[in-house]
Batch of 4 targets.
Target 1
Amino acid sequence: MARTYTTSEIAKLLEKVSNWGRWGADDQRGALNFISNDKRAAAARLVRTGEAVSLALPLATRPARDNPNPVTHLMIRSGNVGHPLGSWGCADYFAIEPHGLATTHLDALCHHFYQGKMYNGFDYTEVDFQGAHKCAIDVARDGIISRGVLFDIPRVKKVDWIEPGEAIFPEDLEAAEHENGVEVGEGDVMLVRTGRVRLRRIRGAGAFDGMKMPGLHASCLEWLHQRKIAVLGTDAVSDVLPTAYDPPLRMPIHTGTLVMMGVHLIDNADLEQLAEKCASLQRYEFMFSLLPLVLERGTASPANPVALF
């Protein structure tokens, strides 16, 4: 049953789903610890045909209402006649702000704070102008390889997409599991499709004015914690927005996953082609692979996750 929490109730809920100390006082990997060697080997055995599906948006190099800081892409050597090095080949330069609403990226556990702390109780001052000295993105340098499970919520609800500002509840997640005959569990990468990418292609960036986003309701936190997922990814930003909670609890899913559970987040994935593939095969589990850039002290990495069937 849908419900509204008070800010104080959200605070209590966050304490309930905490994984602080679960893997030791010095742990910086969080729920990635759920992905064992056996889990990776089992994920590899899910590959039957070898078909691969990218889950990434193209890097957005043009400004838009939801992309105020586009990717900078410059050619520093081309094949133009007259360029002194042009006949040798070409080269380019790019710069990215990975966070935001336009780039498919993996959030590091240091990305979000709550009451002056990040995951496992590390102080927020561990992040300075040199970057993150705890819980940075390079803790995932060996890659995230596990079983992936798609929750195609619009398909279950028989709509084209979940409207901006509309919440997804635990009963919606369980309905998706029931319809697709698959359950998400320990060490899995859980991907939630809201249809945001399709909606933006049809209505444009203006569909999300006011920072409205479809996403998970705070009541999903206990459910996620009980399932012991390793990573949560969506085609939006995981949280339904806006919420009525006071800062710093305005994004309770971000706070609950990154800070309390130690669950890395994938934002702005493109799950459209994956949804089509899963529907055509009637198969909603697959091998998942994401290899983040090894950026020491980084708070995120642009990503090209891949599903293998």
Note: The chain has a mean pLDDT of 95.
Target 2
Amino acid sequence: MKHAPTRLMLGVVLSAVALAAVLLTVDLAALRAALAVTPLPALGLAGLWFGLAMLTRAWAWRALLGPQVSFGRAFWALQIGFLVNNLVPLRLGELARAWVVHREAAVPWSRALSSIALARLTDGALLALVVVLLWPAHAVLPRAWVWRAVALALAVLVLVGGLAWAMRGLRARLPARLRDALVEAAAVAQRPALARFALGKALTWALLAAYYRALVRVWAPDLGWGATVWAMAASTLGIAAPSAPGYIGVYEAAAVGVLAVLQVPQADALAFALVQHGLYLLLTTLLGVLALARLGWSRARWRAEWATAQSTASSSRRNRP
């Protein structure tokens, strides 16, 4: 976290610039007209798909955590992670949900963090593959160049993997904590439940595509399923850039840019992005607050847990040779 302040400032600046860019270049009268057509049935249907996606996401993550973690604990920990991401920068919600399953189900830190890393890497790889396979024919960048970029990325991964394999003899020289983390990561990646994890991920993104389509068809009714899934994948990859909490500004810019490739008018694209992002923030915040109440995480307990963590860290530093 040494460079956390710099990353935080960069994220805030990028969010502000991205949001300003889309707001300053859109016809505000057309945007108001586009927002006025938001139908409640579409919001309700989107909310239903999103809720189901959250259930399958938790089911997939639990497959990596192990049977000692109940589905309920995995689900509520996941919601707390989303809530923290909405309120705190630097995607610290990932650490928050790892901490919750560590405290609530005695899951080792290394396993919790390794499972989250594997889940995130799987998401990124799946979305990148969807973007490449469903690349629109009229997009500016030819698909051939995209495939070359993918081939280069795979070559880099093979090179890194080869170096890791060549250095496996150095494992014994690694610090014990890092060695334990590597062993735990390998165990997570080899779990028999990996097939259930893969199925859960596929279902999650299918449901999120339905969530996305339930709203985007309000402003872009001519988009087919292929274009809808491509737009969802591309705009989701866009929030990998540093941003303020909740991906505010960065997501709107990514969604408007992606839908522009599909020839959706800017006012309609921004109206969709604002409604979709607003619904996402509302649902994840409500579920996160419900998770805190469900797990009994009152303000007093948060303070007690923080004091305990600080005391443990201080003792560890004092006992360090």
Note: The two ends are 23 Å apart (CA to CA).
Target 3
Amino acid sequence: MDGKHILLGVTGGIAAYKSPDLVRRLIERGAQVQVVMTAGAREFVSPLTFQAVSGREVRSDLWDESAERAMSHIELARWADLVLIAPATADFIAHLSHGLADNLLATVCLATSAPVAIAPAMNQQMWANAATQANVATLRARGVHVFGPGSGSQACGEVGEGRMMEPVDIAAAAFGVLPAEGPLKGRKVLITAGPTRERIDPVRFISNRSSGKMGYAVAQAARDRGAEVVLVSGPVNLCAPPGVRRVCVESAAQMYDAVMREVDDADIFIATAAVADYRPAAPANIKIKKVNDCLEVRMERTIDILAAVAQRERRPYTVGFAAETNDIENHALAKLTKKNLDLIAANEVGDNKVFEQDDNSLVLLWPGGGRQELGAGAKTELAVKLVDFIVARVSGRCDVTDI
């Protein structure tokens, strides 16, 4: 968010007590934050608090004589790269959906050409009310981004949906809305992640232990460096990183089809997914009953997605992963050569190693005998190192557009 201008609108709900922390989270990411408060918000949190954490005087008056030509709404609307309202009360959401402009914040929302995002916060029954849901649907249709709400215990003592998202999550979501910046700006990075499931019958499948954490971390790192990121994901229990377009698939065949639809204009392809090498040749249409002592399932090879991408005439810079239980680097080198890859990341897997864990250890290998240890660490940290290494390799090899 370096240098980005974020106008944070704070409206009159109890969740406003979290908003100073949100200012801090946004500033940590490099943003400049200007707070605009409604009259109701000032009943919950002092403007002085926001001034202290943002380093800027809080605005709240529609006709502020100290503002440019006393037209605060125009001045602020032009300044903002993103208008973020957190918390957004049911009342303010209704104002915004009906285009009302009776206070500074609502007027700025109408006057700005920047993206607008809201983080709803209200009683669970107010959130569920048909009027609120209709207003939110109207805003979504107009392109307003809606962050949350979350679910859980509320200040009123009730439990349900309507809690404002946590500040750290709102900051991450806001980052995903802003235009991408960084060394990969203007480039498309296609990533596969997670396992695949190969159907035996309608209730059973063959799969593996991949959690998708490494691939999702790589997707976030690429987005953080300005790329347009498409993440083709098998079934995982992870949320898509902010600003990343996720394509959900289940089988190896579905993953292949999704990759082929996206690869034509991709500049970089990173295959972190643990794709099944084999699948049942003739999956049953109905549940297989337990009637025999043995069950034989004939298996057939799946399409090799990584090799298929690497063999294309106009191919992206192609990166594979080699998850091995033994003789790690030799197996990885064989895969690098056989599939004609630009780079491969080798790691050791097995019981209590990598799968479903937050840590990993990577060694990078490339044609000509190149070798670079990234060492051990959190998958998020290794993903940053990997993407930065790819950026350096791509930049040194040739212009990405020529790959």
Note: The CA atoms of residues 22 and 167 lie 5 Å apart.
Target 4
Amino acid sequence: MLDIIRNKKAFICDMDGVIYHGSKLLDGVAEFLNWIKVNDKKFLFLTNSSERSPRQLHQKLLDMGLDVSENCFMTSAIATALFISQQMPGARVYAVAAHGLSEALLECGCVLTDKNPDYVVLGETKEYNYDKLEKAIRLVLGGARLIGTNPDASGPGEGGIVPACKSLMAPIELATGRLAYYIGKPNPLIMRNSLKKLDAQREDTAIIGDRMDTDIIAGIESEITTVLVLSGITKREEVDNFPYRPSIILNGVGDIAK
């Protein structure tokens, strides 16, 4: 199976738990990216986090010693902005968001406002507070559509597990009785956006991730070969807890380059 993975023309790689933990580059990543370059493979970093823009992600990797073009990133923020702009060009959006999501929405022609918005959009942000929560609830009850950048309940942080989008969204859903539509993995929308950006066919592509409930199921539902790496959140003994399996399990991305 490893030879099949190595023969793929394109790779979609998760970031947290695959490329780095916090500000620490994981073993084998530099070798994997060098293998990608030497073998003329296409690749894209895909993250469910909506906090950082491609420019910020480029800088984060640069600080770790990796020079990766800004064009090599797809985030749930970008996918969310693309979805809204396709559904309603020039949509008015109230965003409870960090810089990455706000920038993506503006670049797609959305208008950021808290006056009669068409959408309330929530992503991970340290600016989350009661006042913004109260306003979001009021706007949704007033008719705004509710969007979440990703369905992750938690994610890795510098000091351990931190709440992610779905946990932050829960009070809004409970208070309004409305369920958000989530754009990030495993939604096939973000996978199609990634394939388009790569200019690759699904049968020629593999997705590499550390989470069964987002990365691996996203690949399965999009009919893309799946690689689970054990360098992140999932332990080998936990795989059998799920009704589906990855195509292959590796210790880390460096195994592909060996």
Note: The CA atoms of residues 89 and 109 lie 7 Å apart.
